[in-house]
Amino acid sequence: MTATNIRTESPAGAGEIPVPVDFFIRGELVRGDAVRHRSRDLGVDFATPAIDGDALVTPRSELPPLLDVPVSEIIEFLAECGKHLDLDTNPYMQHALEHTCKVNPLPRRVIENLFRSAPGYLSPTALWSNVEANFANPAVLDGWVERTDVLGNVGALRAFPPRMVHMLAGNSPTGCISSIAQGALVKAVNVFKMPSSDPFTCVAILRTMADVDPSHPVVRSMSAVYWKGGDERVERMLYRPQYFDRIVAWGGGDAINNVIKYLGPGIQLVSFDPKTSISMIGAEAFVSDEVIDEVAELAASDLTVFNQDACLASRFIFVEGERAGIETFCEVLARRLAVDRFSASADAPPPSSEIKDEVDMLALMDEAKVWGSFDGRGLVVLTEEPVGFHPSNKTANVVHVPSLEQAVRHVNVATQTIGVYPGSRKRALRDRLASAGAQRVVRLGGAAKHVMGGPHDAMFPLQRFVHWMSDEDAISAGLF
Questions:
Q1: pLDDT per position as a tens digit, 73-88
Q2: Domain 276-443 is of which CATH architecture?
Q3: Torsion, CA 177, CA 418, CA 274, CA 264, rounded to 10
């Protein structure tokens, strides 16, 4: 690649001073204000260095820095770095917190909660669980593993380090830690494209790692930069199979569709594309006011994750049972949505005017009953069929169905997490939910809780990331 510095938006100029954003490229901090951008959510200006294509691309003639580093050593290094992510003592995390609050729609209290949970992402137990769940024999990450087929043919297999561009999600300021860990565990050469709602935290994590050991191969395998999504001058330069094997994309439909046009032989998309999550509540929930209160709290905790800006946050709640109990549930749920939580705030940005117009029309036509308000503290809309809009900003569409079994017809391949009450009914539903396309079923209230090492979006990502390489000494053509 010929040296290329790309200004992806207008140069910084007069007017309000933009927030400075640093890059981190293969172990080196890069500062500059050559390019001015505007954050998508809050419209805050920030300035970055120009994109240097040569610096971002590791030539394929160079073996990946982590190739011969044992996974055990990588996990030890990540765990040690995790100990240094304490918000009270880490100046990079403190800087990232202050600036992320300027561009991210989540309230400061929630962002700070997420920052304080950061060390847990790099615990040895969590990291090993991820590796062992993804690979039947983790030794394939550390070298060539010999195998012999039923005909006596001998070969060897290796999960070779990939070269990846990660389009980081913008709804969770600490989500980048998982992406960094995943990239390190598969020994990848990584470029992280930071989101405009948080172009700070990824660099803070990588600077912390560089402080622990500036020459460590993990550090030299990582780069974090920003460009505006969809900028062809950058993406046509980077999204080429001679440079990268995988594009790992988190984001909305437009972001995913934009990547698809660059795909072809040699470069693949691993997509964590937009999903919708739901809840399914049986008639057992409405037997008494005490149970209704309990279930409403569980449903509210699932719905309000990141103020409903998470794929696992419930949007549609399918309920069976008597109308009177369901209406009491809706009334209590509306109150429980207006509560401060670890990952949600009592006051959130209000629903859009389009949602308000839709709800008002449904109520006017007697097709919906409504509790709560349009002020961002929580809205509950009870209908007989799912609404035609996408519930957001703490809006719950409670749908009265004859039975939970009949609610399965509303599940499809875009349905991610399903919270079920009572939990004992999961077993009877889970095969049909999987057949309909769903990817995860949990107890109601457990949407944000995970079994370590589990799949994400119906796949084990690390398996998809690596470049599977086979060395074969076949003596028989066989029958297969």
A1: 999 999 999 999 999 9
A2: 3-Layer(aba) Sandwich (3.40)
A3: 90
